[in-house]
Amino acid sequence: MKVLLFGASGRVGQRITDELLARGHEVTGVSRSGDIEGSSDPDFEVVAGDATDADRVAALVEGHDAVASALGPPDGADPSVLSTMAEAVLEGMKRTDADRLVWTGGAGGLRVGAETRLIETDAFPEEVVPIARAHIDALEIIRGAEAVEWSYVAPAAVIEPGERTGTYRSAAGELVTDDDGDSYISMEDFAVAFVDELERGDAVRTQLGVGH
In whole angstroms, what is the distance from residue 122 CA to residue 27 CA? Predict the structure, then answer.
């Protein structure tokens, strides 16, 4: 599969790249600068691109089988730029034959009760609320994309660099927790879950929570 990956220079994006390449996929990694340190794999190409520019997105998507996103707001940017990115990526895809999109979301929009999302709990850090709301807004835009086979993969409440165990649990729309109520996943295993969904398509048009 030829995959166009936005946000490839970030910590999660780099791990998604590694997972895709390890499984034999061809990856075009997009960054604003066109410079990504690391892999010299012949199946990995780096290009410059602005995910808020639908024209540029369309040009980049052409010739790829699927689009993946590990996008986040640039340092110092208004988190609402995520909505602009979602709109531009979807508009760009509409102009091509590619209709498969897997998007990295945030945990804040996942349910922790019948009518309660993580962002609405007292324990949710106030300083993270703006970026969490931006991810939720982007999800609503993606949900409206009728012509795109999208999946929105959201991590556990805590995601950080760690071990690739190759195991995880998932739940549609729900925060994944362990028996002690903790919610955690390594970035490496998040990448496993992300690529599994890209390959299998078990959660198309679904907000999917993943965790250990």
Answer: 40
As a whole number of angstroms, the distance between CA 101 and CA 88 comes to 13
pLDDT one-digit tens code per residue, 136-192: 999 999 999 999 999 999 999 999 999 999 999 999 999 999 999 999 999 999 999
Q: What is the value of pTM for the model shown?
A: 0.96
The answer to whether 137 and 83 are in contact (CB under 8 A) is yes
* 150 close to 102: Cβ distance less than 8 angstroms: yes
- How many Cα atoms within 13 Å fall on the side-chain side of residue 116? 8
Give the domain extent around 193.
2-211
Domains identified in the chain, total number: 1
The CATH number assigned to the domain holding 76 equals 3.40.50.720
**In the chain, what are the helix, strand and coil shares in percent, each to the nearest 5?**
35, 25, 40
From the list 190, 210, 197, the residue with the least C-alpha distance to 18 is: 190
Separation of alpha carbons 137 and 43, rounded Å: 34
